[in-house]
Amino acid sequence: MTKPSKFAHVVYMTRRYDEMIAWYQKVFEADVVHQDPALAFLTYDDEHHRFAFANLDLLKPGGDGGRGDVGVNHVAYTFASAGDLMDVYKRLKVDGIKPYWPIHHGTTLSLYYADPDGNRMEFQVDHGTVADAVAYMKSEAFGGNPIGIEYDPDELLARYEAGASEAELMVMPVGPPSGIPAEHGMA
Length: 187
Known about the structure:
By secondary structure, the protein is of the alpha+beta class. The protein contains 7 helices and 9 strands. Helix 3 packs across helix 6 (153-161).
């Protein structure tokens, strides 16, 4: 069975955006890799980001300022290769477990799943090195599309099974920037 190679990151939904970023910077001595009014990505080690923060005041305005939608959005697990990710996709699909959001973030090729209680997780493969990811997250391209491009996991699985190389599987698809699906708690 293919298992994740490591725990990657956690994403928090917040209505205290600036306070949360400052707190995690202070407590973890974390560095901001990318920050805009809606999203921030921080790291404290050799991962491109360990924490991400989504500003609910911009992404889901009109909340009551209470606990509501605030909290963990998802946790992420890294797999060793796109082939491993496709093996997991195929195995889970046979059991009727399908991702609600297949997306290439530029830094990762990802599949998002929800468990029976609705807890969300991201299964991902890093696209390039950590240095590549940090450079991309600091680029204008990422600033213009920090979410990524959706892809068809069945098409990617077919390419994998036909012998496509890892590099071919990891190419970011061409298409319009993705919105965030309602299942992700931000729409």
